[in-house]
Amino acid sequence: MKPREIAPGVLWVGAEDWDRRLFDSLIPLPDGTSYNAYLITGRDKTALLDTVDPAKLPLLESHLRGVDRIDYLVAHHAEQDHSGSIPWVLGRHPEAVLLCSSLAKGMLIDHLHVAEERIRAVRDGETLSLGGKTLRFIYTPWVHWPETMSTYLEEDKVLFSCDWFGSHLASSDLFIEGVECVAEPAKRYYAEIMMPFRKIIRQDMEKIGGLDIRMIAPSHGPIYRNPASIIQAYRDWTDDEPHNVVVLPWVSMHGSTALMVDRLIAGLAERDVTVQPFNMATADIGKLAMSLVDAATIIFGAPTVHVGPHPALLYAVVLANALRPKARFASIIGSFGWAGKMPEMIKASMPNLKVEFLDQVVCKGMPKEGDFQALDRLADSVARKHKELGLK
Ligand code: FEO
Predict the structure, then answer these.
(1) Is residue 197 assigned to a domain?
(2) Domain count, the chain
(3) How remote is the C-alpha of 173 from its chain's centroid?
(4) Range of 340's domain?
(5) Among 188, 212, 238, where does a domain finish?
(6) In this structure, is residue 392 part of a structural domain?
(7) CA of 82 to the centre of ligand 1 (A)
(8) Ramachandran class of 120: left when φ > 0, alpha when ψ lies in -120 to 50, beta otherwise
């Protein structure tokens, strides 16, 4: 797509990446992504905000072909999908000064080998006039790395937020009015990279709370012309109040754990608790991450392989431990053939989860009537705990 104007003197000069299906060799991208860069031309100076993933550098090159001068290159975030083409821009524009947060300076030197003398760290809250266009730099740590900052364009009331509020979504539509069509990709993105830092993100939200924001222009996905709904979604995702939801990652080898999962799903449903099961043999880990955003309870279901949990289930445990969701309760169900330490090993793999453990249900071989009754009691416990929290 060609450069497009998002506000007077402000051009989108980024790149769609329609076919990308994996990020960081980890995160599924079912809808592709975009790397949004923006060129702001003031009366006196010109600034480029972020660049694109190096794989899409030819698109950035073509967008900037007629641009003679870039005075400032703003790096909101040192991750390479935004910063990776900085060396090319600095090479083409020897006049450009690279602006970033104080923490980003060292990271850009380490990751991209940018010469230190080309970089100037800006202060939190510092403003820079381009002539009729005033950039205000706002440190917004942990959306997604600790060095990340955002830029507020005062005259046009646009917040350039980089990963924050973004979504991995390639789209020919540059703008979105509400949040509906990005609700899933934006939540998926938050879940995968920002959930662990929600307490700090709440502080970031407070920081921008006093700004009159007419538009949010993130560095992935569409631009929000009516940003209230995505801001509200972030308030919900980052608060400490879980929903009446159990997320149930599980895997089975010969059917014992699958029978237990079926019984537990039925028991929870009868008690008006929403269950989101994920068979780890086939699960989309992005959807699992999204479920972890809201769930009050996590129950892991696993058979025993040798002495420990099935590795596919352990993947879910490690993921939940890394994402540090707001869940309050956890439990374990599953089976073993002759002996093993499956529950102990699962618990030892999730030290970051500050949860109350509810009685686990682990059976030898195929579950028997007593095991099914224990699963019903676990469903009772979950429903009671959720009610005590006032969850509906
Ligand atoms: Fe889109 Fe954290 O980079």
Answers:
(1) yes
(2) 2
(3) 22
(4) 246-385
(5) 238
(6) no
(7) 7
(8) beta
